[in-house]
């Protein structure tokens, strides 16, 4: 089956599906057909389809659980006017906890608390689990056997990412010896004044 | 919350400057502060590290070389204010206070000339501040990503139903129960965050703030605070302003972080 | 605003909307914009957009209540296999809406939204009504006369209940949690679908 015949089928499938589709899932749909496309054919057609959407209001995006058809963020202004409800907002505490889980997984609640310097409420972890952004990865082999948390595929899907590698890079941590010695002077004079 | 953080921090800068050196005046009897509303103060900071980081950034200081004495003093002023307002201070704030005091006293001891990092009493604090700052930034970056429900909308393309015999989803009663439990739990969580009806004193102050401002010109944020009313009076003004922002009756303008804040009526 | 700029916006709106859109509805969405297209501009762009979809798996169709994007019936074969392969599941939002109607009936859509804290799409209520689990019980005597919803006899039959009294109480649900904490987890690991 050539790409020209395959493309509209993929389009129909992506539009009809309520979750992202993988190449494998799509491949399986053709099993038993007389004309059965190979996985490479599907990949090729998907690629061409994505290009076709370049000048449209939609885009074909690959996220963690597969390919999905979505509205381009550029048109969000108008689309959001269709709904009265505002998008949910998340607190800084929740986002910091989520960031720690995303970048430092597997991580325990205690480790998150150490870095944030405050306690993490169990409600917050529950909210993250209910959103299906965070899941338990098992238990750490230390006294108390605390739960180790990690992020889910749904987390990546939600934030429009294909893999954890696509997360923004962390700011660097500088060594203490990188500061200029002359500044140490201010510190000393300051200390003596007080 | 970001707005709150900004206003809260700048606000706290102001009463210190005005109140310091003056004996604390008698708290006006008619000013009652709802305890829930005061949480706004505490919630402006995500904990002691966040508060410290704020104090450092406000003065354009390098995290790698914090003037411990000055920072400790400013930190303690915040703690005292929170205690004075009878906020239930999280234990972490007090732990940090004693850590700062300890570092400060160790800084006063003479150090060998060839000191490396290990000998700097601030090393551990600096490491923690940097690590926290790293994730604070990561959280902001994460929050800025395009995401579902906000920038990204999924398609809702119709499948002509008469053509396709779609099986109906199967549901078990435990699914239904779980859904109800979740929604009730969430609703309870939400309810506990409801701030009580604010008392008259804040409402009155809201009116006087509105009388003071106009839509055409900016009034300095600091003009709304009168040191002679004491800290409680200042807090009521602050809450009134927060409430007015929430109700979109006034606008706040700050040209850059830590710059002076101006208030004007929403036109 | 010319047709070239208008087309992707229309595409985004049609794809995102959960119901057909009329020219008037679309026109109103631009009110207040600096560049506000006229109704004829919108009609013209809609026409061009429909042509653009000629060779795709989707089509832009005018139905009684307006314009909508839909999957071309010609691709039914593959789309229906998608459902065979992955039986559909109701979304968490839909399940919560159903649970609230079951436990808190008679209830209006606005009341459901208040408790859930997010909007309830009209599609969701429609799906429940089509399933014959939910019906209108009349209208609440407040401004706007919102519909009051309740569950049907079919709902009771499906869940094998004789009457609504047989629905477990919230206390029992919490007990269930205590004795079978894994239940709460199974719930989470399943992907929700809408």
Overview of the molecule:
- The complex is a heterotrimer, with two copies of chain A (194 residues) and one copy of chain B (267 residues).
- Chain A has nine helices and four strands, in the order H-H-H-E-E-H-H-H-H-E-E-H-H.
- Chain A is an alpha+beta fold.
- Chain A folds into two domains: 79 residues, Arc Repressor Mutant, subunit A (Orthogonal Bundle); 76 residues, Orthogonal Bundle (Arc Repressor Mutant, subunit A).
- In chain A, strand 1 and strand 2 form a beta hairpin.
- With 267 residues, chain B is mainly alpha-helical.
- Helices cover 54% and strands 5% of the residues of chain B.
- In chain B, strand 3 and strand 4 form a beta hairpin.
- In chain B, helix 1 packs antiparallel against helix 9, helix 3 packs across helix 6 and helix 4 packs antiparallel against helix 5.
- Chain B starts with a helix and ends with a strand.
- The chains are: A alpha+beta (194), B mainly alpha (267).
- At the A-B interface, strand 2, helix 4, helix 5 and helix 9 of A face helix 3, helix 4, helix 5, helix 6 and strand 1 of B.
- Strand 2 of chain A pairs antiparallel with strand 1 of chain B.
Give a brief outline of the structure.
The complex is a heterotrimer, with two copies of chain A (194 residues) and one copy of chain B (267 residues). Chain A has 194 residues and is of the alpha+beta class.
Produce the secondary structure layout.
The complex is a heterotrimer, with two copies of chain A (194 residues) and one copy of chain B (267 residues).
Chain A: H1 3-16, H2 23-29, H3 39-52, E1 58-63, E2 66-71, H4 76-80, H5 92-104, H6 109-116, H7 122-130, E3 134-139, E4 147-151, H8 153-158, H9 181-193
Antiparallel strand pairs in A: 1-2, 3-4
Chain B: H1 2-19, H2 35-43, H3 48-58, H4 68-84, H5 91-108, H6 123-144, E1 153-154, H7 173-192, H8 200-212, E2 219-220, H9 230-246, E3 250-254, E4 261-265
Antiparallel strand pairs in B: 2-4, 3-4
Helix pairs in contact in B: 1-9, 3-6, 4-5, 8-9
